[in-house]
Amino acid sequence: MNKKDKLLTIGQFAAMHGINKKTLMWYDEIGLFKPAAIHPENGYRCYNYHQSPVLETILLLRELDVSIHDIQQFMKNRSAGSLKCLLDEKIADLDRQMTHLQAIRTTLCTHRQNMDTLLTMDLSRISIIERETRCLVTVEISKDISFEEEVELITAETEKYHLGRLHDASYGSMISVSSLQSGNFDDYSRLFIEMPFLTCKTGMHITPGGKYLRAFHKGSWDLMPKRYQEIFDYAKEHNLVLYEFSYEVGINENVIDRIEDYIVQIEIPVLG
User: What is the mean pLDDT of residues 53-80?
Assistant: First the structure.
């Protein structure tokens, strides 16, 4: 007799596949996976080596969260085509999950970086950093738009890009350098949403890559003009040309209770 035709007990077959024999009993009871033979004397289930690939396929589909019903349907019409369709669906699901997990990881790294910054930062310091080009989803705003309307606009954009949770993205506001230089410190023109791994599309805002001036402001918004004046003085002293927009992001919202402790990170692209 070929060794591959030799019958195995349910315990041996289960152990070979790293599962509990009760799983095999259940699969038999629901008609999903039958034993190769039933022992004529004691009624015990027996299996053979040739059944292993079929069982492994079932176990793989279960690991991919395919329902028992769908696996049963597949088993009734088992073919290369039907298996390919099932695997195509699951690969697409896995790709979406991996993208989502990568986005969460990126967000967590951003939060961790913000916490590192909070623990070591000198609020008075102004520095020059390097930034890569980013793609931002933006929402046009003006002084005439209420906070409630801004929330509605942001919500609409997150739904458009299938953003499931707020933690999948970072949010901030934009004010043009020309407005700041004209003394219009409350002339915010856009809110932005940065989503990790989002493919750039027509209509999205592309930030310039290169050098940025970075500063921080803590406390009352009434003192923001003073902080921006310090930024302009620093740029003038170091022969830096500020251009495009100032990008503002709160970096400690999740660890404070008082607005007086709120810290805004300011980044502005520079030439020079």
Answer: 91
